[in-house]
Design brief:
The chain is mainly beta and about 170 residues long. It has two helices and 13 strands; from the N terminus they run ββββββββββαββαβ. One of its GO terms (molecular function) is translation elongation factor activity.
Length: about 170
């Protein structure tokens, strides 16, 4: 499940010429926000030059492919990666607090299947769970998570302030 919250005017950056696309760039293919995985130049039988783009949808992970005229421009979506602290899971919904600002909260649905069960298990264990999300085109979805052990209360009070040390980084796809 994705969370809709967006600023429609800030969804796209300035268009970019196809001839300037590179690996790891973001681009809209067939209306979907994608990350370019491979790019090549091909020439058709009628001497038209095309840019063949192989990409991955940043929200679904689905492989996408398109051939675009070399001289056209493509839309470039704004893609942000954000980090949240998991506060609670209630009725299959995660309550998240932004790691960058304490007054920013969102809700995301717990992923279905084994991935969601593992996440719930880590939340119930003695771990801090940080959810990494990708936000684009007015939608935000979980990309991965990071775990850090919870400290006992007496040690947590003595610990200096600062970001937690990542002891275990699990990327789920």
């Amino acid at each position: 499940m994705t969370t809709d919250h967006g600023n429609p005017s800030g969804l796209l950056e300035a268009p970019k010429p196809c001839s300037e696309l590179q690996k790891k760039d973001h681009v809209l293919l067939k209306g979907r926000p994608c990350e370019v995985k491979d790019i090549s130049i091909i020439e058709t039988n009628d001497c038209q030059i095309l840019v063949k783009v192989v990409a991955e949808d940043v929200l679904t992970g689905e492989a996408m492919e398109d051939s675009l005229p070399y001289t056209t421009t493509v839309d470039v979506p704004v893609v942000e990666r954000r980090k949240y602290r998991l506060l609670d899971i209630t009725d299959g919904v995660m309550q998240l607090e932004a790691a960058f600002a304490e007054d920013v909260w969102i809700q995301l649905k717990v992923p279905e299947g084994p991935l969601g069960q593992r996440l719930i298990g880590y939340y119930g264990a003695n771990c801090n769970v940080f959810i990494n999300t990708i936000a684009t085109m007015g939608k935000e979805d979980m990309a991965s998570w990071t775990l850090t052990p919870k400290l006992p209360e007496h040690l947590a009070r003595e610990r200096p302030q600062g970001p937690p040390v990542n002891l275990l980084d699990l990327k789920e796809t």
